[in-house]
Amino acid sequence: MDLADSRPLAGAVVIEPTEDGAGRQAAAAAADLIVAAQQRQGSARVIFASAPSQQAMLAHLRTDERIDWAAVRSFHMDDYLGLAPDHPQAFGQWLSDRLPEAGRAGLERIDATADPEAEVARYSALLAAAPIDVTCLGIGVNGHIAFNEPGDTDFEDERLVRRIRLDDVSRKQQVDDDLFETFDDVPEYALTLTVPALTGAAAMVATVIGPQKADAVRAALQGPLTTDCPASVLRNHPLASLYLDAGAASKLGQPS
Question: Which CATH number is 11-245 given?
Answer without folding.
Answer: 3.40.50.1360
